[in-house]
Specification:
single chain; about 290 residues; alpha/beta; 2-enoyl-CoA Hydratase, Chain A, domain 1; globular; 3-stranded mixed β-sheet
């Protein structure tokens, strides 16, 4: 079964992350396939826009940390032992994702359920994010593993909210993400597919060459604000985060107890890790809200 599905319909390319049993966690092969599909759709004169979505209950739970690195007999390939190797690996994957930003045609992210860690790298590089109200966004690796290797949060929701979410790894609902500008719009989950279809239909009424002019001038504006340079710096910053003592402890726990146990130990102490926009966030000693 293909981990990425590619459908052309009604002037739209529908790209579906297709590992629902793994919450669509991203492997290197999936990112390579997504990169190729994006450029293929951009080259297709009958395609006006591209939708990236996830199969099953979730958009994407992040990078697949259990996936084995590629190996070739008779060749010594970079791992991640040195900081330069680490940055190189991060930059290689970032170049694949940056196709979302670089291609000429608009990209819509259709987000339901979990959009975590690397899933946010895909979503926030997209031109427009439509989310289910009960979806949630978070970068939990900020708690013990590193920084994000793509940084578009600050351009969507501003520095204070970017810091609030990244400094804690707490999660924000689609409904609240809309209010702070992290996503363009949130709708009830059952209405999400229709909402994306309708937007795609409207884009299909516009000459793709004109769509390209609108996307590219806005993205050039982001570049003038440093967006592309910041993406490269994000890789170097993430490699720095990987050298933190907490990151060493996370990797030790993974070796000793497994990945799920490491996640439980990291996230369990945070209790209810939702962000609230309009209510107090007073919590008890276990991290749970005191008014629930």
């Amino acid at each position: 079964m293909s981990a990425l599905l590619y459908e052309r319909r009604d002037g739209t390319a529908w790209l579906t992350l297709n590992r629902p049993e793994k919450r669509n966690a991203l492997t290197l092969a999936m990112q390579e396939a997504l990169h190729e599909a994006l450029w293929d759709a951009d080259n297709d004169k009958d395609i006006h826009c591209i939708v990236i979505r996830g199969a099953g209950d979730d958009f994407c739970a992040g990078y697949d940390l259990a996936a084995a690195p590629p190996r070739e007999e008779g060749r010594r390939l970079r791992g991640g032992a040195s900081i330069d190797d680490d940055i190189w690996q991060l930059e290689r994957q970032q170049r694949l994702r940056m196709a979302i930003f670089d291609i000429h045609k608009p990209v819509i992210a259709q987000v339901q359920g979990r959009c975590l860690a690397g899933g946010t790298d895909i979503a926030f590089l997209s031109d427009m994010v439509l989310a289910a109200e009960d979806a949630f966004f978070a970068f939990p690796p900020a708690r013990d593993l590193g920084s994000l290797p793509n940084q578009m949060w600050v351009y969507h929701c501003g520095p204070q909210w970017a810091k609030r979410l990244l400094l804690t790894g707490d999660k924000i609902s689609g409904r609240d993400a809309q209010e702070i500008g992290l996503v363009m719009k949130a709708v009830p989950r059952e209405a999400l597919a229709d909402e994306v279809e309708e937007l795609a239909r409207r884009l299909a009424l516009i000459d793709p060459d004109l769509l390209a002019t609108q996307k590219r001038i806005v993205n050039l504006g982001l570049e003038l604000m440093g967006a592309r340079t910041l993406q490269r710096l994000a890789c170097e910053n993430d490699a720095r985060g990987h050298r933190a003592e907490a990151a060493d402890q996370f990797r030790h726990t993974v070796r000793e107890k497994g990945l799920k146990a490491a996640f439980r130990e990291r996230d369990g102490k945070f209790g209810d890790d939702r962000v609230r926009l309009h209510k107090s966030e007073r919590r008890d000693a276990k991290g749970n809200f005191t008014d629930e």
